[in-house]
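Forgive a beginner's question, but would it be possible to get a protein, spelled out as residues, together with the matching structure tokens, please?
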Amino acid sequence: MASETRPFLKMNGLGNDFVVWDAREKPLRLTKDQIAKLGDREHGIGFDQMITVERSTCGVDAFMRIHNSDGGQVDACGNATRCIGRLLMEENAKDLVTIETNAGLLHAFDAAGLRNVTVDMGKPRLNWDQIPLAEEFADTRAIELQIGPIDEPILHTPAVVNMGNPHAIFWVKDVEAYDLARVGPLLERHPVFPEGANISLAHIFDDNQIRVKVWERGAGLTLACGTAACAVGVAAARDDKTGRKTTIHLPGGPIGIEWREGDGHVLMTGLTEVEFEGEVDIETLTWRKTAGGDAPLEAGAAS
């Protein structure tokens, strides 16, 4: 009997890249080991997250299942939500779609075309037990946590925010002055984070302009992380470091964050891209490209 071949899309939001499967008509079942092999950038397709689009159980446009490149399942991914939102809007000729996730219902809408998509990420969770943390902290704007010598720590007193997944934000003067590939894994798995955490270094370099570098839980260093951008924007505004509208400058590019005053929801706006189409032999995990992706945007088209 011939092995099964499944088509996929390779997409990214500001370089935060995904393999996307449509499993609405035919379920897709991959083991954690299979996902990790496909996610390997040297021997597999390579991605930060694997996204499976499934039928919604509550009647909205689709359910989005998210796995990190290590094969573990997570509840939220802002850039992936923007990418899936774009696909569903194009498919259904709509300018607003609702996506069911394990973190709740998220709304994506067209942000003036040109592959720009806005996602309403809902309200941030700010209490210590919502992050969650292993012990109680009255003020999550700066918790007692440090790495390095007690009298001269490398990093210390991060803000913590949950945007569907836990984030710790360290305010620094230069995001490139730290070896995040070395300290990121230590902080991700610190005992204060029972579910692990995404680790961000953030530097405010101008009014409402923040440069950010992210170690993503279960994925490692990434060009962009949407929920981290949201968490940084919230943490900055909450501590009066910025206003409620910020531009987060990630290695993959800028992303707009607005923490609305009225309903407390966080809106995230940025570019999406289809890199290519492909197909995978599910038994052997061999894969090939079958078609190209988006045409390059003209200079200035993202503005």
Notes: The helical segments are 32-39, 78-92, 180-188, 226-238.
